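Batch manifest, entry 17 of 40.
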Amino acid sequence: MKEILKYSGCFVCGDRNPHGLKARFHYDGEKAVTSVTATEAFEGYRGIYHGGLISTLLDEVMIKAILAVDRYAVTAEMTVRFLSVVEIGDHLTLTGTVVRRKGRVFFTEGQAAKDSGELVATATGKYVEADAELAKILRQSVE
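Output type: structure tokens
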């Protein structure tokens, strides 16, 4: 699997962001994949991983599926469905896939699952491919 481009200052994938998740994303030719462990730093309630972080990770893994094929896009719409609580210490694997494209819009799906295979959240997203001017700016961020 190839590692997907990142921006080192990114909250999700940046390795130089002191407050970030430092998640690494890979692409297997069909889907983007990452894994994280739920930590206390991102609790919502005591012992529970904040749902906003799960949403953030799902957004990132879905857009990484687009970036993996050398397309630059921005989030237009995203829907997350939470299926189970994530406890601090749980290890999650997240996947994102482009399911279709219509013009400049990419339609995606994402999943977050515990090591047991239990799905904890699913997502769908719409991402709009950046025009030439915005793509140039976005390209300057990635490494």
